[in-house]
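ok trying this again, last paste got cut off
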Amino acid sequence: MSATKRDLARWCAWQRENAVSESLIAERRRLVEQLAAAGVDLERARPEAIAAFLIARRVSAHTRATYRSYLHSWFRWLVHEGVRLDNPVDQASTRAGGPAHPRAGSTAKFPIRWRQPIAEWLLHSRASNHAESTIRLRLALLARFAESHPSPWQVSTRDLVAYLASATWAAETRKAHSVTLRSFYRWAAAAELIGDDPSARLPAVRVPPGKPRPAPNAVVRRSLDESLGRVRLMLMLGAHAGLRRAEIARVHADDLVDGLLRVTGKGGRTRLVPVSEDLAAAIAAAGGGYLFPGQVDGHMSAGHVGRLMAAALEERWTAHTLRHAFATKAYAVDRDLLAVQELLGHTSPTTTARYAAVPSDAMRRAVTAAATT
């Protein structure tokens, strides 16, 4: 067996010891072998070589991010074994003419005892297909918790309860902290880094149900009438197809086939959204490639899309309120919540119910009926 094959076998054994599934181990090994087949030295690879390898993969941005995590695992093992002093994947840029797309991954803000566990948890989160925005938020919340808890393994359920109860947070913020702590300690228990999960007995955080906040029809019409070019197309995708700003940023000309737009949403879930003739024509007129070119794997960032859309809308209305407006109009057609759920890409109709406002005519009919009894 060659040295490289022996090292790969040892790496795979190390992953098994860390409770990585056999299917994920096989996927990671296959990609590392492809890296070697591309002529990249598996021990002394430079960031530029890894970036070129990743860019050459004709895959979606989400898949490329997954590939990065696979290669990161290999080089992290080499650092663990003392073969390398650094992980070149951290510096491997896949953006044209700039640094790598910002990814949650820095452990420098954490106390020293947190850093290795956080690095492991980050890889697990990406392997679980969590959105990069979700990972970034949870990383920030864990860093805040770590400020007052220098060791992750000297934390009890009582400590977690006291932490969640101490701040004057809104219910949604408190829930986000609770979910984040559960995510980290549930992973640590499954990886056998701790014997008992201190978050398992945390009380549930009750959050009042959110209310739909659709942008008014008049605001949407004026914004569309007054906007041109790419911003108008962004507004149409939000108001007429219900896309999230991150989904709008990633729309590619090839995603539209026979009046159906292929949309990849949260968690890599894909759905087909029927679009109007006007929207289909606007997409076709935008030309080939990404509709909104940029430096994030070839397309514009979700944040920039959101800022452009908010600037085109009036007052406090945002890209997300266009999604609420779409949901409200779609629900008013047949009162079919499941159909709206599919269009929005939600996993639960409960979530969809927070987007679709009950039509005012239905409420008027209910009040009139009550008044006549």
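PB: full thing came through this time. Residues 96-102 have pLDDT under 50 and may be disordered.
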